[in-house]
Design brief:
The chain is α/β, with parallel strands linked by helices and 261 residues long. It has a domain of 182 residues: Vaccinia Virus protein VP39 (Rossmann fold). It has ten helices and seven strands. The protein has a seven-stranded mixed sheet with strand order 3-2-1-4-5-7-6, sandwiched between helices. The radius of gyration is 19 Å and the shape is globular.
């Protein structure tokens, strides 16, 4: 496992106990993805559903209820997240890497993946999703685009040159990676979703609580001083909305994918 992946894994392990309470925007994104999934449903009944990058397992709950699979597989590489799962008949939780799925070829009928593949190499993860998906199967994927947390990136611009916000891959990269992985892109949508709080300190605390704080290799090694923090707060104030809240915008890319029969 690369050093970057180890940092991501550690961040989500630490966030496992606080994730669900702080994951309002993640639930909103799951709702968007479920709407897309219902518009592009499976061609036949689903015997096995894979929740790829499942986190605490709650994100795929409505989808599991809708599809009623005989068997569901929840996979995540953060053991702390998997420990939050509740057991139920036909449900298996596996600790594994999305770029190296510990599953047989063509072993699942449908794949749900919300806010997980952005931590992966697009070509590798799409090749793996295509490999384990049955011919005729369907995958629904939500990932993050390059404009994610743009307000924070903009506010930090005059503070220092550290990599405070990760640069995620764009829509074209995900489309091409899916095609190269043997998947047909049935739909691709890009929608914004915003986390909100009454202060920048609270907003950043909530981002940390879901494990999505900055883990890039160029991150700042020392805390901001008081003067720099005040400068950051002042810069972020320009983004305060009419309702009095500060937003942190997620650039969400939604994909409906099919594997040819």
């Amino acid at each position: 496992m690369t050093e970057r992946k180890q940092r991501v894994r550690a961040a989500f392990d630490r966030a496992a106990s606080t994730y669900d309470a702080a994951a309002a925007v993640q639930r909103e994104i799951c709702a968007h993805l479920l709407t897309l999934a219902r518009a592009h449903p499976p061609a036949s009944s689903v015997r096995c559903l894979l929740d790829a990058g499942c986190g605490t397992g709650r994100g795929a709950g409505a989808t599991t209820d809708w599809l009623a699979p005989v068997r569901s597989v929840a996979l995540d590489f953060a053991p702390g997240m998997l420990a939050r799962h509740l057991g139920r008949p036909g449900h298996v939780a596996i600790c594994g890497d999305l770029e190296h799925l510990p599953l047989a070829d063509a072993s699942v009928d449908a794949i749900w993946s919300s806010l997980a593949v952005q931590w992966c190499n697009p070509a590798r993860v799409m090749a793996e999703l295509g490999r384990v998906l049955q011919p005729g199967g369907t995958a629904w994927v939500a990932t993050l685009g390059p404009d994610t947390l743009w307000e924070l990136r903009e506010a930090f611009r005059d503070i220092d040159d550290a990599e405070h916000v990760i640069g995620f891959h764009g829509e074209d990269t995900w489309r091409q990676s899916a095609i190269q992985g043997g998947l047909r892109v049935a739909a691709c949508q890009r929608v914004p979703a915003a986390a909100t709080a009454d202060s920048l300190r609270r907003l950043l605390k909530d981002i940390k609580a879901i494990g999505a704080h900055q883990v890039g290799s160029g991150r700042r090694r020392t805390p901001l001083g008081k003067a720099a923090w005040r400068q950051l707060e002042c810069a972020y104030e320009h983004h305060r909305r009419a309702d009095g809240l500060l937003p942190a915008t997620y650039d969400v890319i939604l994909l409906a994918l099919h594997r040819s029969a």
